[in-house]
Amino acid sequence: MRRNPEFTFRAFSLFFAITVFLTASLAYAGDVYVIKVQSAIQPPVAGFIAESITKAEQNNGDALIILLDTPGGLDTSMRDIVKSIMESNIPVIVYVHPSGARAASAGSIILLASHIAAMTPGTNVGAAHPVTIGKDKVDKEMMDKVVNDAEAYVRSIAAKRGRNIEWAAKSVKESASIPAKDALDKNVVDIVAESMDDLLLKADGRTVETKKGKVVLKLKGKKKVEIDMPFKYKFLSYLSDPNVAYLLMMIGIYGILFEIYSPGSIFPGVVGGISIILALYAFQTIPITFAGVFLILLGIVFFILELKIISHGVLGVAGIISIVIGSVMLIDLPRSIFAISWKSIIAVAILSGIFFFGVLSYAIKAQLSKVKTGKEGLIGETGVALTDVFKDGKIVVHGEIWNARSDEQINKGDRVVVAGVEGLMLVVK
After folding, report:
1. Separation of alpha carbons 405 and 429, rounded Å
2. Which domains, from first to last, does the chain contain?
3. Residue 204 contacts residue 219 (beta carbons within 8 Å)
4. pLDDT tens, 8-30?
5. Which one of the listed residues 105, 171, 240, 327 is annotated catalytic?
6. Any catalytic annotation for residue 145?
7. CA-CA distance, 422 to 429, in Å (whole number)?
8. Which of 28, 321, 322, 397 has the fewest CB atoms within 10 Å, measured from its CB?
């Protein structure tokens, strides 16, 4: 049976057209990707958000939703996140969720920078006044410059997204904060949604402008794909917790000190070295005061002196007080998310006392204790003369018979004390 060439060509053309259409449809039928940020804004969080945006873009996602609940965080990390959102090729929706969550301080600026800003009833946003921490405290004039810079920054973001510029400026200058309903009424956010599905329904059909241009959102009924934070970011985020960094620093110091006083232990030195390195990483993102560090080190010096000088506990108490004050001053911002909790400080003070008065004292006593073996172990030991001893003679020490000599006449049966060792001859008196 002969085939019709024209029919074969038309069938192939139809098949090719259908394949291209289906491929194109699937390419644009992207999913909605979802991530959770429920912590302070720090470098690991900024890295996670940037990586998630890239992944959603590569997978032809229709949008990325950030479920946000944060008390704020570092200005540098917040600006990195804002840049990632501004440079995104897909819409980024920031949704303050669940009820009771907040987008405070740096979080409020991230919310303003999003393509679609949304909140759950029972949430709040605001309080974006900048705060300086660490050793580089600024005077009033410099602080005014910092506030003015932050105000200009948030004004530009609000203007670009068509949101309430005056309220954005007020959140920086006066730490203004408002609940979800008021934020919607004042054009601070675009949507107040009860749930994720409600959010997708209300966002559907809206037009936003991404880096690639204007995009009409088609989110109704789309599949939601959650992106979990990779282990590396979870680990780095955990390390960036001020309490964890503080405890790592103290463990590192004590581990190295124990290794110094008890050489060859190995384990304390290894743990101490690793802990110090991890603490240094954390303190790169958490500004600290040198005064606090010096007071903690001074407290440790007091503990060491207590073990070497008879002070009847005065130096030990001074060491505990110094460590407590230094810990409080280490991050000089008591009501900040970067403050070290009193539970951590008290726990370290108690464990410091136990460590130095207990464990470390045994190591030092072992070093300073009298040698009990070899030639050095015989000096100071007592024995009994088996014969008269002067230029030579014999004695018994620890049940052993030794040749002995003395510079004074010793009679048989007298008790003797070993004053020195000359080869196999003991010098006694």
Report:
1. 9
2. 8-230 (3.90.226.10), 241-368 (no CATH), 374-428 (2.40.50.140)
3. yes
4. 555 555 555 555 444 444 434 46
5. 105
6. yes
7. 14
8. 28
